[in-house]
Specification:
Oxidized Rhodanese, domain 1, about 475 residues, Metallo-beta-lactamase, Chain A, 3 domains, alpha/beta
């Protein structure tokens, strides 16, 4: 039995190819499925099974496209009542892929319909050798149970039972293959290591060390990080069955005047995906900015309206497909055009431009804050609590969409994150809402600390550590 993992940075999603000598299964596939087709071809195995552990909230799955490309059957939780052709699975079901026995456990908690797959390599022995557990158990953490309104306590209790009555009954040597790692918002404090064993997690996973049921429930229903807007949307899309990529609109090349007219028609938004320093120099007025080099998919799904066409501004043509893939991963399928020639062609055509003036960390330290100059820290609560500049106010970047009303649009607004990317997104949101004097701190808190103006931020020093350092388990 061969297990190969595929990892997407940003959303921190892991999917798996599990192969015998001639056949293989793909577990929790990403939507751009060519990676699995190429891997199976290179390994000279046929994709015969597509296994879903649950209706994923943070990304749109590739099960429909992969089934169409391979003819493989889709296996999914029976309780999910999926709206596409599939093999429904429940507790106690089992099937074979060559010499591998795949047994099903119902593991509700992160979601109501969750299942896990226990693999036994019958060619070597009768003991379970691997657990593909979706979002029930992570390395150093467990799945969050608070994604369904009014069900957090109920699901937390079910998660406790799924872990202690089922998964922790497996042998210590059983390998653990979760669907997410550090950086994902499907958990609270995942570790950076992407696979583990039952024994190691039993001994060192803080969530599993909480033996008391009520304490466990409290730890997962209080002080949880916010859930992005697209989580509910992606779950619904995955249950119905995503639109195949081949049926999505082509991304049309638009000359500057065409682009301008489409942007002004009222049913489209402009998304600039260039580096934040490029956006700051000049951009299409009213554009959203989300740097492709950052956590592009998550913040796109979180912030962008899902009911509008999307027009892209890119640095070069290679970014067009990269951006389209990143947007489709979070259910933003209406990518319909891009600016031919980029901002160079736009400016040459004599069309209006806007800009965000950068502010160096030295200048920020020199001028500080005042009644008319407001420093807004747009990082997460855990980042802000770990380290922030005195005098700053805290508004996480997605919340600027509504909480911009707490700021004076006539004031000088200075935005800071840990690098400059999220704060650039925040600047674009403020500009869209009528703010006129907006600055972005180049280098963010990382640069501020490196220049010697503040203590090192733990989030910046350990970028691959648990996403939410310092959160208590109760």
């Amino acid at each position: 039995m061969i297990v190969r993992r595929f990892f997407i940075k940003g959303i921190a999603h892991s999917s798996y190819l599990i192969a015998g000598s001639k056949a293989c299964a793909i577990v929790d596939p990403q939507r751009d499925v060519g990676i699995y087709l190429n891997a199976a071809k290179a390994m000279d195995v046929e994709i015969t099974h597509i296994l879903e552990t649950h209706l994923h909230a943070d990304f749109v799955s590739g099960h429909i496209d992969l089934a169409e490309a391979t003819g493989a059957a889709i296996y999914a939780p029976k309780s999910a009542q999926c709206g596409f052709d599939h093999v429904p699975l429940a507790e106690g079901d089992a099937f074979e892929i060559e010499h591998m026995l795949v047994s099903v456990l119902e593991t509700p908690g992160h979601t109501p319909e969750h299942i896990a797959y226990v693999l036994t390599d019958q060619g070597r022995g009768d003991d379970p050798v691997a657990l593909v557990c979706g979002d029930t158990l992570f390395v150093g953490d467990v799945g969050r149970p608070d994604l369904f309104p009014g069900m957090a306590r109920e699901l937390a209790a079910k998660l406790y039972d799924s872990l202690h009555e089922k998964l922790l009954k497996l042998p210590d040597f059983c390998e653990v293959y979760p669907a997410h790692g550090a950086g994902s918002l499907c958990g609270k404090a995942m570790a950076a290591k992407r696979t583990s064993t039952i024994g190691y997690e039993r001994r060192y996973n803080p969530a599993l060390m909480v033996a008391d049921r009520e304490t466990f429930i409290a730890s997962l229903t209080n002080d949880m990080p916010p859930a992005p807007d697209h989580f509910g949307r992606c779950s619904a899309i995955n249950g119905v069955g995503p639109t195949p990529i081949r049926d999505l609109p082509a991304v049309e090349r638009l000359a500057p005047q065409q682009f301008h007219e489409r942007a002004q028609a009222g049913n489209a938004l402009v998304l600039d995906v260039r580096r934040y320093e490029s956006f700051g120099g000049q951009h299409v007025p009213g554009a959203y900015h989300n740097d492709l080099a950052g956590n592009f998919s998550t913040f796109s799904g979180w912030v962008l309206p899902p009911n509008q066409d999307i027009l892209l501004v890119t640095e070069h043509d290679a970014q067009i497909e990269e951006a389209a893939i990143g947007l489709r991963r979070v259910g933003l399928d209406r990518v319909v055009g891009y600016l031919d020639g980029g901002m160079y062609a736009w400016a040459r055509r004599g069309l209006p431009v806007a800009h965000v003036a950068p502010l160096s960390v030295q200048k920020l330290y020199e001028i500080g804050t005042s009644d008319s100059r407001v420093l807004v820290d747009v990082r997460s609560k855990s980042e802000y609590d770990a380290f922030h500049i005195e005098g700053s106010i805290h508004i996480p970047v997605p919340e600027l969409r509504t909480r911009h009303t707490e700021l004076d649009p006539e004031a000088e607004i200075v935005l800071i994150c840990n690098t400059g990317r999220r704060s650039s997104l925040g600047a674009s949101i403020l500009l869209r809402n009528g703010f006129t004097t907006v600055h972005n701190v180049a280098g963010g808190t990382t640069g501020y600390s490196a220049a010697g103006y503040g203590a090192e931020c733990p989030m910046c020093v350990i970028p691959h550590g648990p996403r939410f350092l310092g959160t208590a388990r109760g």
